[in-house]
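DM from R.C. (forwarded with permission)

"hey, sorry to bug you on a friday — could you get me a structure for this? deadline for the figure draft is monday and I only need the backbone to look sensible"
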Amino acid sequence: MSRLVMKFGGTSVADLERIRRVGRLVAAEAATGKNVAVVVSAMAGKTNELVAWTDGAGAAAQGLTPSDDEYDVVVASGEQVTAGLLAMTLRNMGLRARSWMGWQIPIIADDAHGRSRIEEIPSEALGAAMDGGEIAVIAGFQGVTKDGRIATLGRGGSDTSAVAIAASLGAACDIYTDVDGVYTTDPRIESKARRLARISYEEMLEMASLGAKVLQTRSVEMAMAHKVPVRVLSSFVEPGEAPGQGTILCDEEDIVEKRIVSGVAYSRDEAKVTLFGLPDTPGVSSRIFGALADANVNVDMIVQAHARTADTANMEFTVGKRDGARAMEVVNGLQAELGFEGAVLDEDVAKVSVIGVGMRSHAGVAKTMFKALADKGVNIQVISTSEIKISVLIESAYTELAVRALHAAYGLDQL
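My reply, with the result:
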């Protein structure tokens, strides 16, 4: 019999009625003869509540390290509640089911508490239970360190849990969410957005990292590395209501007709740092970005150009909005050493991107993008490119206008 991992996010298990609907969806899959595991998130809003409680416990006293391991104990409890409730619901429907915590499988993770990465999943016991006809209901988002401590995988970690478990079981993975698949752009901004029947792992990885909220980036990385068949579909339907729904993540080779552009993504979680009058000498960039890396500030787009003053340059780079203040502290701390004129932080920016594997073999993609934005009076501040995406930084007020213009320019409303 084939194995299937089903994953349900927080909105899908937000209350008991929704958990009962999840139970019906799980029961329908089990009725087809599949051996089923279900990975669940905490009920919507519960993780935020638990995090607030840990904040309310206060900060570590001076000289003491933060209790990140105990933070994980608290925030991992949300998934435990959901797993138990769903297992009870399935049993009450007459099905064999039991809950599994991350430490019971076990999901072995490193000790970077709050942002742990999965190292291995010995799944023999889990697989044997499933093959014996028992539905496994697994608490997502959590693992266990080699010394036996609970470790959580970071926000969105239940997606990663599900894909990792599917990889270890040799199973397919269906990720149920509050949308019925992956769209060409955010339907809340562009009503003409279209659901994609298939999307390549690479395209989904770019879309996830560039602002699309459908899947967590690490889960897509894992699916691509282990060739896990993944389908994204809606949990807000009853069994059999929407045959053929969802979007399948697959290898690029499995998409017969490759689109030039598959989607438009955006992110308002951006801040731009501009440095004026940098000495145009070797080692300056290394010093700046080395210091930012040491401060755990992730830098995205970078552009440098000669300034009007001889032997100086101006530099712009982007970071996540919540890292903006820390980035400014770092660069201002280097001003005396490097001798640049000054630094400015701009948080009123957004990143808009077009993504598509077809870019590799088609010319003129950038031309279409820049013309569409120019026709709408949208000024481009920074440009970043890769093989299958082009990103631009613009003033945040123009985000929705830019998304709609690009969606139309590439004919995505005609798919």
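R.C.: lifesaver. The two ends are 36 Å apart (CA to CA).
me: no worries. The CA atoms of residues 261 and 410 lie 7 Å apart.
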